[in-house]
Amino acid sequence: MGAEAHKPASRVGGRSLRLFNYPAWKVDVNGRPTEAQTIAVTGQMMIPIPAGENQVQIRFARTGDRILGGFISLATVILLIAVLLFTRPLTTGAEAL
After folding, report:
1. Span 50-82, pLDDT tens digits
2. Which sequence spans correspond to the domains of the chain?
């Protein structure tokens, strides 16, 4: 998931985005990795860009916490299926009739 934009800037500054600056957002400005800044009050992402024509690319990458969360979710589903399959009451032949 990501976005790309070509943004002209008349002077050096930053562009604010309506995105919360979560560490998984990776930003490249003109092909170079750039550290996004955070607007203190809102937590919005601010991208520093130089004057002139700029190519800004933003993508949402996997982080360790999201990978771990995926494994925990998978393990939980497997455990729930195992509990459902192996904790059913056993029936004897007489009860089945």
Report:
1. 888 888 899 999 999 999 999 999 999 999 999
2. 2-62
